[in-house]
Design a protein that fits this description.
Strand order of the largest sheet: 9-10-8-7-6-5-4-1-11
Radius of gyration: 20 Å
Bound molecules: iron/sulfur cluster
Number of strands: 17
Number of domains: 2
Oligomer: single chain
Helix content: 25-40%
Shape: globular
Number of helices: 14
CATH class of the largest domain: Alpha Beta
Largest sheet: 9 strands, mixed
Structural class: alpha/beta
Strand content: 15-25%
CATH superfamily of the largest domain: Aldolase class I
Length: 350
């Protein structure tokens, strides 16, 4: 079946984390009915296709009421054909959910929860500007595990001063929960974030590389290997919705700042709540070359890479000579070396 997903962006967070460059707003009060009408208006603009995945991202969508989540899922089920095993994910923060709310989201139709843990030590939770304590983080993972069969949590590593031993201890603790999926990101400093204005001393390339290499090996041993540069899953638990982006499939984005791709049509909602509420959106027609380039950049994040059909050969051949890419059986994929320097590799191919 052709895959098609819907992404719903919830813009509010309880506070802004200093490393984050996602569109988010402080969680003041919001008028749920106004937001609900705007989301439904956006949903009704989407061309009718069979929906294979739905993703509530943000922001902190666990601040949404289970009633609103249920309402949006119902509108989708009433207006679109949906795949029998539609994956419905929701991102949550430990301080913006508890077990009762997890159960309410589950009853509303959420079948995959992803928890933003980020660190399993108190000092680094504070450094990352996270509001939850280590104790809450551990409790929420247990609770999530008791409510959801399909779940994931995120950790950020390669933090200032973090040694290989410290990261090993932390990842071992994460693995003790036997998670079916983990997202493990290296800390990067994004422009225009509070971290970019500070002098953050990240581990040097050699340390970052040893952390990543050990992570790949340890996760492989745990039977939860990487399938995307920062995402690890037991077989069958790969996030189907995120795979849409990396595999170049179509998706609709609703809510402020959400993006969509429908064939060659790119949609982009404003990063501004009131403009989005008024219904503004930007639609651009991409050239087949631009879309192909996007697919290459996204596809190389995947362990299995992408089909080599229709790819412009010049830069790819250069990257193959450098040992960063491999071409085999009609596919192009990054080598271990290529994954270590994926950002540079992508820049060279662009
Ligand atoms: S909670 Fe998530 S989306 Fe919100 S500011 Fe922090 S990292 Fe960004």
């Amino acid at each position: 079946m052709e895959k098609f997903g819907i992404y719903i962006h919830w813009p509010f967070c309880l506070s802004k984390c200093p490393y984050c460059d996602f569109f988010s707003l402080p969680a003041a009060s919001w008028d749920e009915k106004t937001l609900e009408s705007a989301y439904i208006r956006d949903l009704k603009r989407i061309p009718i296709r069979t929906v294979t995945s739905l993703f509530f991202g943000g922001g902190t969508p666990s601040l949404m009421s289970p009633r609103l989540v249920h309402r949006l899922i119902t509108v989708i089920r009433d207006n679109f054909p949906v795949a029998s095993e539609m994956e419905i994910s929701l991102e949550a923060n430990p301080d913006a959910i508890d077990k009762l709310k997890m159960e309410a989201f589950h009853a509303a139709g959420i079948n995959r929860l992803s928890l933003g843990i980020q660190a399993l030590n108190q000092k680094d939770l504070k450094f990352l500007g996270r509001r939850h304590t280590l104790e809450t983080a551990l409790q929420r993972i247990e609770e999530m595990k008791s409510v959801f069969y399909n779940f994931s949590f995120d950790l950020i590593y390669a933090r200032p001063g973090q040694t290989l031993q410290a990261w090993q201890n932390e990842l071992e603790e994460a693995l003790s929960f036997n998670p079916p999926h983990l997202s493990l990101y290296q800390l990067t400093i994004e422009e225009e974030t509070p971290f970019a204005r500070k002098n953050i001393d990240l581990p040097d390339d050699e340390i970052a590389r040893s952390l990543y290499e050990w992570t790949l090996e340890r996760m492989e041993k745990a039977d939860c290997p990487f399938y995307e540069v920062s995402n690890f899953a037991r077989s069958g638990f790969e996030c189907r919705h995120n795979l849409l982006y990396w595999e170049g499939d179509d998706y609709a984005g609703i809510g402020p700042a959400a993006h969509g791709r429908l064939g060659l049509i790119a949609t982009e909602n404003p990063k501004n709540l009131s403009s989005w509420l008024k219904g503004e959106t930007i639609t651009t027609l991409l050239s087949p070359f631009e879309r192909q380039e996007e697919k290459l950049i996204m596809g190389l994040r995947l362990k299995k890479g992408i089909s080599d059909k229709g790819l412009s050969p010049i830069n790819i051949q250069k990257a193959i000579k450098k040992g960063w890419l491999k071409q085999e059986k009609g596919r192009i994929f990054a080598t271990r070396e290529g994954f270590m320097m994926l950002n540079q590799l992508i820049l060279e191919l662009a």
